[in-house]
Amino acid sequence: MTTDYSKLHELASDLFTLPKSAAEYEQFRLTDEQVDFYHREGYLSGIRLLSTEQVETLRHELAEFFSPEHEGRDLWYEYHTNESSNPDTVLFHALGAWRLRPAFHDILWNPAFTVAASQLLGGAVRFWHDQLFCKPAKHGGVVAWHQDYSYWTRTQPMAHLTCWIGLDDSRVDNGCLHYVPKSHLWPLLPITGLAGDMEAIQEVLSPEQWEQFQHPVAIELDAGCCSFHHPLLVHGSFENRTPRPRRATVINVMRDGVGSSSNDALLNGVPPVPAGTQVTGQFFPLLYDPQKN
């Protein structure tokens, strides 16, 4: 029988070690300058979260997922061997890896992630959901320009954070992230699609936004490093035409206290959280509370 790791709200393996005291947590704290940069620009990149060994363990688990017949396949919230409609531009995209394998489960409790996330959110960190974005060598598809929160309005207020973690070295030529700095100060934009048209966002930008959009920043990261970004920051990534893959896992979290704004299921296969009540429970564990750690 497949283990559903969403039932376990503690470490399932020895891949990570939790600090035993508040003093031990201090080593993972961001500097005041880093936190200020995030609030000013809408992102913070180049933070090391994983060792070489931890990256290799995650890659090993990830390799199993590419076969549609893998064990635990019924536990995904979403699973797309190709989110793109074009077989020549493959984008593997899936939600829910934390339920299927121990390393993808345990990375959520990695203190190098949770402590930084708490600082950027300004409070206790509750899990929202995870994602995999993988671009195979030589024909990886794009992730079109978007704001994450445009897909998350079923949870309110907007107190969310995205952490994009490279499982390969991510460079311009193999489809690294690009950010539009300070676009987190823009209002919520209409959805223009996630996998396909990099030009579609032009239709929803004002002239002033379009001018600012002309200067995106490429976020090049070594494997095991991450980038945090605000839920309104406009971001996307171009295709991979290199001989090497570009694999990434994404952890999406929210400040504890965020509630449901929908009576429908927040994620596929998850029991609804009634509108107006706090998001908690088996599928949305509390990862870190600075008042208790």
UniProtKB/TrEMBL annotation:
Keywords, sorted A to Z: Dioxygenase, Oxidoreductase
Keyword Oxidoreductase: yes
A Pfam family of this chain: PhyH
Example of a GO MF term: iron ion binding
Cofactor: Fe(2+)
Domain of life: Bacteria
The protein, known as: Phytanoyl-CoA dioxygenase
